[in-house]
Design goal:
The complex is a heterodimer.
Chain A lengths: L2 H11 L5 H8 L3 H13 L20 E9 L7 H9 L4 E6 L6 E7 L2 H12 L5 E8 L5 E2 L2 E2 L14
Antiparallel strand pairs in A: 1-3, 1-4, 2-3, 5-6
Chain B lengths: L6 H4 L6 H9 L5 E2 L11 H12 L12 H15 L9 E4 L1 H13 L5 E6 L5 H7 L3 E6 L10 H7 L6 E5 L11 H13 L3 E5 L24 E6 L12 E4 L2 H14 L5 H13 L1 H25 L11 E2 L8 H12 L1 E2 L1 E2 L9 E4 L4 H16 L1
Parallel strand pairs in B: 1-10, 3-4, 3-5, 5-6, 6-7
Antiparallel strand pairs in B: 2-8, 7-8, 9-12, 11-12
Helix pairs in contact in B: 3-10, 4-10, 5-9, 11-13
Classes of the chains: A alpha+beta, B alpha/beta.
Chain lengths: 162, 380
């Protein structure tokens, strides 16, 4: 694996690894690690770093919905044009063009169900190219970004074994 | 009538690791770098295949030699990895862990009084197994200056030319040493010249980080004199499922199976189903675990280097084998455990005086803490 690839794999595993941690795990110098990260960021490969949060464990009320969007295109309007209008809203957490029965797969977040519903009916549905929206409220989350939310297994190995 | 142990049992001292285990078990909050098994669980697909087999009521014995489908997959795996052909009907035996396979080979192929040359340091059971078979164990001490690889020089020095069998394990527990195909050539030549059988324990073959693992059986004139042992414990993190296998020419497997059919009958059925799935679909998980071990290996080596502790660049299994900063390794390990709550096994438990076996089958956060504690212990 290239050093960029290795650093990327490690940051995907834990974005809070320090430069020193990364250097020790890859046999690279700290300067090389920093350079690799800078390159990854400059090339737009790494877009950001975020915590993976289980909101059920906090006092905050968060409502998330997964929304299917159907659109119609014409000669002047592409998927990218429509997407560009939608992603500008801060309520939109993710937007993906997908194959299958609908066109866009969107996740929306708000403080209440009302807020999310209003956002979809007032801001998204009226966009002229959007022909249909189907909203699924997320009721529970078991795994996000590869991280399981259930308690991890305890290490039940013998403390010393041959 | 008394329950006096038989002589060959009385002759074997209790495992050197035992006392240390008892000490460590009494303590809370220790970080253990003394564990000889993966910290991962078996890949979910393999576990699920085991569960599914139970749901379907697959709780009977299998064929003595193991399920044919599994033997075919094992033979196929050897073909893909090493271009080595073993007939799944006659030359593969599925056992209850590689440990059973090794035990069977000793009992089926070694006569009382035969000499068993054992590359040391090594896994704790090779010497006792020789005593249980009334054979003579002959330690062949590998050296720090050779990075604990087996060489013609140490074989000659130990008098292994007169032995009947050579037992070796690379990638090695406890040293983490590996041997390349080139390095194995002189061992193979020595075995051919002196007509030795070779018992090659390759249980850590999937965990070789700096070069591809070579099975000694692939070298010229070696397949016919070698029993290869492997299993699912280390590569697939399936230690508790107890599943291993042996591969050798038909006459060896036939002799081993004769003991196996009267003692074990067959390896655990659930584990065999899990193993089939492991071989069919879990190579990505193995690669992921392997990458994790490799990063931790580099981390640990880099920390020992910084502490000024002499530690060769071990390239396999999940162990590094630093020289002990004190003359008395047991005293060092006990003091480290008591004062810093870090468990490390003294090398002499494996026939490796003056060294410590440090297992990195532990998450990186614990490894970091443990290494910091070791650093403060030796500098304080």
């Amino acid at each position: 694996m290239s050093s960029r690839g290795e650093i990327l794999a490690l940051l995907l595993e834990n974005a809070r690894y320090t430069t020193e941690d990364l250097a020790r795990q890859t046999d690279l110098s700290e300067a090389e690690v920093d350079a690799a990260i800078e390159e990854l960021e400059a090339a737009g490969v790494i877009k950001g770093y975020q915590a993976v949060v289980d909101w059920d464990e906090t006092d905050d009320e968060r409502v998330r919905a997964h929304v299917e969007l159907n659109v119609t295109l014409d000669r002047e309007t592409s998927y990218a044009d429509i997407a560009e209008r939608i992603v500008k809203f801060p309520q939109v957490q993710s937007l993906r063009l997908v194959s299958g029965d609908y066109d866009f797969d969107m996740t929306v977040e708000g403080e209440s169900m009302r807020e999310v519903s209003h956002f979809i009916s007032d801001k998204v549905a009226p966009i002229p190219e959007i022909t249909q929206t189907v909203t699924h409220y997320i009721m529970d989350s078991y795994k996000e970004q590869g991280i399981e939310f259930a308690d991890g297994d305890d290490d039940d190995r013998l403390s010393v074994s041959p | 009538m008394t329950f006096e142990p038989a002589e060959r049992v009385a002759d074997v001292p209790p495992s050197g690791i035992r006392r240390f285990f008892e000490l460590a078990e009494e303590m809370d909050d220790i970080i253990s770098l003394g564990v000889g098994e993966p910290d991962f669980s078996a890949p979910w697909a393999a576990r699920e295949a085991g569960i599914a087999s139970l749901e379907r009521g697959r709780t009977s014995y299998t064929a003595n030699r193991g399920m044919r489908e599994l033997r075919e997959l094992i033979a196929g795996d050897m073909r893909t990895r090493y271009g080595l052909e073993y007939d799944p009907d006659d030359e593969v035996l599925v056992t209850t862990g590689a440990s059973e396979a090794i035990d069977l080979a000793y009992r089926a192929l070694i006569d009382p009084g035969d000499t068993v040359a054992i590359a040391q340091p090594s896994f704790v059971s090779y010497v006792p197994k020789a005593i249980f078979t009334d054979a003579e164990p002959l330690p062949v001490q590998t050296r720090r200056e050779d990075e604990f690889k087996l060489t013609r020089a140490v074989l000659e020095e130990a008098g292994a030319a007169a032995a009947d069998v050579l037992v070796m394990c690379y990638p090695n527990n406890p040293t983490g040493a590996t041997m390349t195909g080139d390095e194995l050539q002189e061992v193979a030549a020595f075995a051919r010249e002196n007509d030795l059988l070779v018992f090659s324990d390759e249980i850590y073959s999937a965990l070789s980080y700096e070069h591809e693992h070579t099975s000694i059986a692939t070298l010229e004139g070696m397949r016919e004199r070698t029993v290869v042992f492997n299993g699912f414990s280390k590569a697939y993190a399936m230690t508790g499922l107890r599943l291993g296998y042996a591969m050798a020419p038909a006459e060896a497997i036939d002799a081993m199976n004769r003991i196996h059919q009267y003692t074990m009958l067959s390896a655990p059925t659930t584990a065999q189903y899990a193993a089939i799935e492991a071989l069919e679909s879990c190579s990505d998980e193995v690669e992921t675990m392997c990458n994790q071990y490799d990063r931790r290996r580099k981390f640990v080596l880099s920390r020992f280097d910084e502490m000024g502790i002499d530690c060769f660049r071990a390239a396999g299994a999940f162990y590094v084998f630093p020289a002990c900063p004190w003359d008395d390794t047991t005293a060092f390990a006990e003091a480290l455990l008591e004062e810093e709550r870090v468990a490390i096994v003294p090398g002499e438990a494996f026939g490796g005086e003056g060294h410590l076996r440090v297992s990195y089958a532990t998450g990186l956060e614990d490894l970091k803490t443990a290494m910091n504690r070791i650093e403060s212990f030796i500098s304080g």
